[in-house]
Write a structure and sequence with these properties.
The protein is mainly α and 214 residues long. It is 54% helix and 4% strand. It has 8 helices and 2 strands; from the N terminus they run H-H-H-H-H-H-H-H-E-E. Helix 1 runs antiparallel to helix 6, helix 1 packs across helix 7 and helix 2 packs antiparallel against helix 7. The N terminus and C terminus are likely disordered.
């Protein structure tokens, strides 16, 4: 068990290293939008590609059938959103547009995600050479244990948000609640299944507590 945890911590560190490539190229508040979106695309593509290869090997022609993925709880990724397409465009001026189009393709196939995914990669404020370097780092990451650790995406997200909060200063923690605090809240409140817990960030607003999954 310890060996698996160490591997996952290394994976999280790789994600943070990718974020560090962006230092000085875009405002700190934009780091999370860029990195978290790429985590999502890379993660779902890794699981999809593994299942795709299995279906091709079976030889029944189901590799492009979304139901063949849904039955295994795997996200079906449309062709224009697959990581291979993004990776091949990493060092082209169009890389930002390719990523934005990938997000739109996923939203079009999944109405619940409409207007949820980030589509800011074609912004002129984001250096496309730097973005290409970040894409390369994601391409070279070992995602082999994604299917064995279903909470990998969630924990990596939490790790990055914590680091962003640390580096952005006192205001960086506005939308991040440390895991230790979350565990204390859960122990005290004992929320039930499908319960959503909010915290008040200002006298006039509140938001779900980061990292609280019930």
């Amino acid at each position: 068990m310890a060996e698996k945890n160490n591997a996952n911590i290394g994976f999280e560190k790789q994600i943070w290293d990718a974020a560090c490539v962006l230092w000085g190229h875009i405002p700190a508040a934009e780091y999370r939008k860029v990195i978290i979106g790429l985590i999502f695309l890379r993660y779902i593509s890794s699981a999809f590609e593994k299942r795709y290869a299995e279906l091709v090997a079976e030889g029944y022609g189901f590799e492009n059938d979304p139901d063949a993925y849904l039955e295994e709880n795997i996200f079906f990724v449309p062709e224009e959103a697959r990581w291979s397409k993004i990776a091949s465009a990493a060092h082209t001026p169009e890389i930002g547009t390719v990523i934005d189009d990938a997000m739109r393709a996923i939203e079009n196939d999944n109405k619940k995600l409409k207007n949820v995914l980030p589509k800011n990669y074609a912004s002129p404020d984001l250096d496309k050479r730097v973005l290409g370097d970040v894409v390369d780092l994601f391409t070279n990451m070992d995602m082999g244990d994604t299917e064995d650790s279903k909470d990998l995406l969630g924990r990596t997200y939490e790790y990055c948000i914590a680091k962003f909060a640390e580096y952005e200063g006192t205001n960086g923690g506005e939308f991040y609640t440390p895991a230790s605090i979350v565990k204390t809240i859960v122990a005290i409140l004992k929320p039930f299944s499908n319960c959503r817990v909010y915290e008040i960030s200002t006298p006039f607003s509140m938001h779900p507590i980061s990292g609280l999954y019930v």
